[in-house]
Amino acid sequence: MSYEHIRLEISPAAVATVTIARPDRLNALSGQTVDELRSAVDEAGSSGARCLLLAGEGRGFSSGADLAGGGGPPADAGAALEKHFNPLVEAIFALPIPVVAAVNGPCAGAGCSLALAADIVIAARSAYFLQAFVNIGLIPDAGATWLLPRLAGRARAMEMMMLGERIPAEKALEWGMIARVVEDDELASEAVALATRLAQGPTVALALIRRLAREAGRLPLSEALAAERAAQREAGATEDFRGAVMAFLQKRQPTFDGR
């Protein structure tokens, strides 16, 4: 499929890199952009790729929803969520492969939600995260009110969402929103290395980990233990597990085929 607002590239290492490519608009998310992202996520999931890497071209990851392209306030500010943004977030969470986000510069609004939906977020030192909806009389969306309390805790999430202030990368790391901060000129290489490592891992086990972690917040302990038991049975039936056990016994590094 051809895209106008994004790029999809699948490397020989089975990493599907989806790049928001509207640098002249600071990668603002129009309806078309979001729909293309959704198509690319689906394409990555069915392509045989074993990791998805999300990135933004130019000076920032994304400035959020493209308000300038709408021609004024919409009659229903939630309609775009139902039609465009929410299906994209659901598609990311439904992927059977790990997701990495490489964040540079501004990461705001729905763009912030998109990045934080990844399993591992790596940010450039100059990057910042922003939920400024309150500054225009709206609420954080695209999953922000679900994601942020789980990542940063309620108190910090409420501060971020109610004050609408920038959270620098270092503070986002301290708050538990992201996993790593690297120097600006190292972001691309570090993100690719991380995504490649995940793509070479036990894909079924990684998919089960991301599912269990997502469900853990709503399950009581007994159900979480039962879910782990069922997932371990599934992981234990894979060729990757059997091969890794043999590699351990033979004192060599395992290789994973994702099966």
Structural account:
The chain is α/β, with parallel strands linked by helices and 259 residues long. The chain has two domains: 6-199, 2-enoyl-CoA Hydratase, Chain A, domain 1, CATH 3.90.226; 203-249, Orthogonal Bundle (Lyase 2-enoyl-coa Hydratase, Chain  A, domain 2). The chain is built from ten helices and nine strands. Strands 1-2-3-4-6-9 form a six-stranded mixed β-sheet, with helices on both faces. The chain has a three-stranded mixed β-sheet with strand order 5-7-8. Helix 4 crosses helix 5. It is globular and about 65 Å long.
Number of helices: 10
User: Based on the structure given, which CATH architecture of the largest domain is correct?
Assistant: Alpha-Beta Complex
Subunit arrangement of the protein: single chain
Number of domains: 2
> Main β-sheet: number of strands, strand sense, barrel status?
6 strands, mixed
Bin the helical content.
40-55%
CATH topology of the largest domain: 2-enoyl-CoA Hydratase, Chain A, domain 1
Instruction: Report the mean per-residue pLDDT as an integer.
Output: 95
CATH superfamily of the largest domain: 2-enoyl-CoA Hydratase, Chain A, domain 1
Helix/sheet category: alpha/beta
Please report which band the strand proportion falls in: under 5%, 5-15%, 15-25%, 25-35%, 35-45% or over 45%. Answer: 5-15%
Sheet with the most strands: spatial strand order:
1-2-3-4-6-9
> What is the overall shape?
globular
